[in-house]
Amino acid sequence: MSRWFCIPPASFLPLLANWQTHMIIGPHVLHNLEYKHFYVDHPEIYTMLDNGLWEGEVLSDEVLLEMAIELQANEIIAPDDASADLTIQKTTQFMDYIKGNGLRNRFKIHGVIHGNTYGEHKACYDAFVNLGVDVIALPKMLGAQNRAFWMGEIKTQTPHIPVHFLGFYLNELDYLAYGGFIRSFDTSMPFKPNYNAKFNLELPNNWINRTIIKHRLRSWKKRYRK
């Protein structure tokens, strides 16, 4: 089954000390020291550090790497941009930067596919394969249809490179429920009270397991209904 990297609000951090995989949003750490203190004190948590594009405050290569070292992050979302060309440029620059600092093997690096056309997506993909990124990330802004397509392409063309979904749509639960399609995904959905008030009262561990199981049952009933 796919792994869920939770993105908790600072107030939820103590409740999630035993949750094994977290995504850390870089700009959140800069503006709220609770995040820094929590992750420094919990090096046993497997963490993925995001550069902050979605939040509109992209960290520089220097700040991103320094933060990854200080928080003992395991994975880093390489600097990216909505433009495919700029994404390739920034990811290449970051890979060169961490190699120059002798830290390439310390972190797993994600290359994020961007662009508005198949050609732009393919250019990102080809560049990431040549760069030797560890994970290919498919952002929510690609749309569910494009993500499904590239998930299949990556699985077919380069099955040794795992896929991560940056955020996810509820109609993508099949990919999570049946496994083998994506390695991992991240979401803050259970922490949004406007989505469902009961998420405030339940640990997200119970939420994701229950959500996937219910989805499986609905899918099976629909598939085999006479």
Q: What can you tell me about this protein's structure?
A:
This protein has 226 residues and is an alpha/beta fold. The protein has a single domain, classed as Queuine tRNA-ribosyltransferase-like (TIM Barrel, Alpha-Beta Barrel). The chain is built from eight helices and eight strands, in the order E-E-H-H-E-H-E-H-E-H-E-H-E-H-E-H. It has helices spanning 26-31, 33-41, 61-71, 84-100, 118-131, 144-157, 173-177, 204-224; strands at 3-6, 21-25, 46-50, 75-77, 108-112, 135-139, 163-166, 184-187. It has an eight-stranded parallel β-sheet with strand order 1-8-7-6-5-4-3-2. Helix 4 (84-100) packs parallel to helix 5 (118-131). The longest helix has 21 residues, at 204-224.
Largest sheet: 8 strands, parallel
**Overall CATH architecture:** Alpha-Beta Barrel
Distance between the termini: 29 Å
Total DSSP E strands: 8
Q: Which structural class do the helices and strands define?
A: alpha/beta
Helical run tally: 8
Shape: globular
CATH level 3 topology: TIM Barrel
Please list the strands of the largest sheet in the order they lie side by side. Answer: 1-8-7-6-5-4-3-2
Order of helices and strands: EEHHEHEHEHEHEHEH
Q: Work out the count of structural domains.
A: 1
Helical percentage:
40-55%
